[in-house]
Amino acid sequence: MPKPLWDDDDPNLDGGRVVSPVPGVRPGFAFGAKPNPPNRYKNPQNRHTGTDWPGREGAPVVMVGTVGDAPGVVTHVTYDADYGNSVRVRWEGHTWRFCHLSRVDVNVGQQVRPNEQLGLVGSTGHVFGPHLHLEQSRTATWAYNDVLDPTKGW
Ligand SMILES: [Zn+2]
75-85 b/e with 16+ CB inside 10 Å = b? Predict the structure, then answer.
């Protein structure tokens, strides 16, 4: 399928490519960075397992990818003390986890297309302020050695 051209109506689309999972917000705290103080992340390497987008509370969170790509499927909608409200989407052979949401707008089993809204930025779980933490993993379930830098993955 040919890729759409720049969408003048949506500055988050560049040639149909979603340029940020939080439209208008650039990535902040980077994948692989070492937090200070340490022990913020429960993995042996003590490295950041995703990338943060410091969006304001309530900002939309959208699916990554390029418009026209095959949809992903929502595999989990969960709450836990670390990730807060999070949505996992299986897409392009990877699992994408959108974390700390204040609101979730999708359900397990639902197909989601790039640029489709998944929920809202929040500060649920173990956070110091509202932001999106996005993880990309090769496996269907999370494993540290399988995580990738989500700013390079689409
Ligand atoms: Zn993070």
Answer: bebeeeeebbb
Closest CA to 83 of 144, 133, 151, 148: 133
The domain locations on the chain are 13-148
pLDDT, tens only, 18-41: 999 999 999 998 888 887 665 555
Q: What SS3 state is found at 145?
A: helix
Question: Under CATH, to which class is 13-148 assigned?
Answer: mainly beta
Instruction: Give the distance (Å) from ligand 1 centre to CA of residue 107.
Output: 23
- 143, 149 Cβ separation under 8 angstroms: no
Distance in Å, CA 100 to ligand 1 centroid: 9
Angle among Cα 93, 21, 71 to the nearest 5 degrees reads 40
What spacing in Å lies between the alpha carbon of 144 and ligand 1's midpoint?
14
Q: pTM for the whole thing?
A: 0.90
